[in-house]
Specification:
Elements lengths: L2 H20 L6 H13 L4 H8 L3 H13 L3 E5 L7 E5 L1 H25 L2 H23 L1
Antiparallel strand pairs: 1-2
Helix pairs in contact: 2-5, 3-4
Pfam families: MarR_2
Organism: Streptomyces varsoviensis
Protein name: MarR family transcriptional regulator
């Protein structure tokens, strides 16, 4: 298999895995992405969230409105720009995000246990480091 074919096969496999795991989510991907950004990066504006997600401001604002209405995100005035708001994840939002992540992990763990023997699980564990290094390299560019 040539290197381009390897890269394409890896891209397809990872995409299929991500779509399969997201199938157990109970909230829209945009909303869980926003909660994830707020949990990892602290308070952000709607514009910053839109930029990080690669979506329009309007799309991010719609998700923020749903999350705020559900008590998962709270807004406070921006300290240096009165036209903006800083968005914070609430305790309820963090609990919901952790629940989504736990559900995904549970589904993946169950599939790993069902499909792979001990040796295959060890090989899979070894691949995690390689995939993490690849992801780091790609995000540095």
């Amino acid at each position: 298999m040539d290197e381009d074919a390897l890269a394409e096969e890896l891209r397809q496999s990872i995409g299929e895995l991500v779509r399969a795991v997201r199938g157990v989510d109970t909230m829209p991907p945009g909303e869980s992405a926003i909660l994830g950004f707020l949990a990892r990066g602290g308070p952000l504006t709607t514009a910053e969230l839109a930029q990080r997600r690669g979506v329009t401001h309007q799309s991010a604002a719609k998700s923020v409105k749903e999350l705020t209405g559900g008590g998962l995100v709270r807004a406070e005035p921006h300290p240096s720009d009165g036209r903006k708001h800083l968005l914070h994840i609430t305790d309820a939002g963090l609990a919901r995000l952790q629940g989504e992540r736990a559900q995904r992990a549970h589904v993946v763990n169950a599939a790993i246990r069902d499909m792979f023997d001990a040796e295959e699980r060890e090989r899979l564990r070894d691949c995690i480091g390689l995939l993490s290094r690849l992801a780091s390299h790609l995000t540095e560019k």
